[in-house]
Each structure stands twice: as C-alpha cells, then as structure tokens.
Specification:
alpha/beta, Lysozyme-like, 21% helix, binds zinc ion
Length: 177
C-alpha cells in the first residue's frame, strides 16, 4: 500500500495510557485535497490519522501511536465500547481510536477503489494493534457523536469489514505507525 504522508500539526503526542482499540469511519463532505489543507492548518484544530481518496489514494496525517482529533466529542453514543470514568464522564474516544476519513459526500456511493484501499488499511491497522474486525470495533462516527452523519447513507460497513477480513495478511508491516 502506498501511503503518502501529509503531516498535520493537530494532534496530541502519544495516547496517555490508552492504545487503539477501534477504528472510526468518517466522510469528508468534501475532497481529499480540501481535507489535506484543512488538517494541515492549525486553525482547524482537527485531524484524522488517514484520508482515503476516490481513486484509492491513502494520505496519512497523524501517526497511529499519536492522538488525532477526529472523534473527541461524545453525544448520545450508541457504541457499546465507549469508555467512561468512575464518575461517568466520557473519556475522549480520540485516545483509543484511529480515525479514517473518506472523500466525498454522505449520499454518494464509495468507489470500488475506496472500498479496496480502506479495507486494506483497516486490515493493516487491525494486525498492528490487535483490533478485531467486527462491527463493535469498526464503527461510524455517529455511533460516538449522534449529531454527526458519518458513515453517511450509502456506505456498506458490513461489506467493508468483510473485505478487510478477506484481505490476505500480506500487508507491509513496516508502515509508519
Ligand atoms: Zn466524522
């Protein structure tokens, strides 16, 4: 997999005491190149670990061992694995998730190239961090923050997970994390 580095200044070094336990799927509501510049601007204060383009390009903004700012807010979550403190406060899911953005809009079908690149990347991440490839660990942003529409209306997340499971584990494990 050819990963192009587009470092974002918007991240927290490390993950406190946490490690990646799940992968959050986002939709850019825009282009890959627009997202590149948004994440590379300190004004946006947001980022994700990766962005996938319609042609299957993979851009990396933040290293997996660091905390990207992609899903830090929690609102009426439906995700079963969300973490809370003893006093019931939500721990920012940014600390224990990896975020992948996808080019395009909520109502536009993903290209085959996007499904391929995303499922390949998900497979590689799951091997690095021992993340099970199932619906509990591969989630849409809206499962953390109900006011968000990511996944959108067209993405077949079960297909994405099935494809990730199908990919032979031949992926380059030396990728930057
Ligand atoms: Zn999102």
């Amino acid at each position: 997999m050819n990963i192009i580095n587009k470092p974002s200044p918007n991240y927290y070094p490390g993950r406190k005491t946490y490690k990646p336990e799940a992968i959050v799927i986002h939709i850019m509501q825009g282009t890959l190149y627009g997202t590149d510049s948004w994440f590379q601007s300190t004004l946006s204060k947001v980022s994700a670990h990766y962005g996938i383009g319609k042609a299957g390009q993979v851009h990396q903004y933040v290293n997996e061992k660091d905390t990207a700012y992609h899903a830090g807010r929690v609102n009426t979550p439906t995700w079963g694995l969300i973490k809370q403190t003893d006093t019931g406060l939500y721990i920012s899911p940014d600390y224990y998730t990896i975020g992948i953005e996808h080019e395009g809009d909520f109502n536009v079908d993903w290209t085959d190239e996007m499904y391929n690149a995303s499922s390949n990347l998900i497979r590689a991440i799951s091997l690095r961090w021992n993340i099970p490839l199932d619906r509990k660990h591969i989630i849409g942003h809206h499962e953390i923050y109900a006011l968000k529409k990511c996944l959108g209306n067209t993405v077949d997340i079960n297909k994405l997970i099935a494809m990730a499971n199908d990919h032979a584990p031949l992926i380059d494990q030396s990728l930057t994390v």
